[in-house]
Fold this sequence. Notes:
It is built from seven helices and four strands; from the N terminus they run βαβααβαβααα. By secondary structure, it is α/β, with parallel strands linked by helices. It has a single domain (2-184), classed as Response regulator (Rossmann fold). The chain has a four-stranded parallel β-sheet, sandwiched between helices. It starts with a strand and ends with a helix. The model has no long low-confidence stretch (mean pLDDT 97).
Amino acid sequence: MRVLFVCSGNICRSPLGAQVLTARLGRDAPAFTVGSAGTIAQDGAPMDDQAAEQSVRLGGDPSAHRSRYLTPAIAGAADLVLTAERSHRAAVVSLAPRAAKRAFTIKQFARVLDALEPSDLDGVDTAEQLVERVARLRGTVPQPVDPAEDDVDDPYRRSAATHERVADEIAAALDVIADALRAVR
Length: 185
C-alpha cells in the first residue's frame, strides 16, 4: 500500500507524519510505501530543524528527507492520502479527482477509525479495503463542531512548544491509524 502525507512546504508536518507512521508500523513497515509531498514545496529542501527534532523524539528518521512538490502523478498514485489540513485535501482532489475517496486529513481518518464499531470492519482484509470502508462510512460519523478540528496547525517558524504540540497531535492520530493498518496488513 502506498501512503502519501501532504502539507504545504513538505518540511514540517507531512514528513513528520510519514516518518512517525513508518516508525509506528514497526516490523510491518515494509508492506507500506510511505512518502510525503507539499502543495507549495520547493524540491530538495531538508526538513525543518524543529520538526526533525520532533520526528526523532517520536521514533522517526528525518535524515534522508528532501521536500518534493505535489504533482497529479504523485497524488494519483497513492492508495491513501493523509493531509495536514482540509485545504491540502482539496488540493489533492483538484490535482487527482479520483483520489477523493482515498484522501482524508490525518485527524479525520483517525477520528473515523476511532468511531467505528468492530462490525463496521467485517470483511475488511486489506489496507486498501480499510481505506474504502472508511471513505464509505466517513459521513456516518459525527463531524467535529468546528471543522478546523480536523486540521493540524502549521508550526513553521513558530515556537518549540508549538512544534511539540503539533507533533503530538499527529502522533496521536497515527497511533490509531497504524493500529488499523497493521490489523489488516
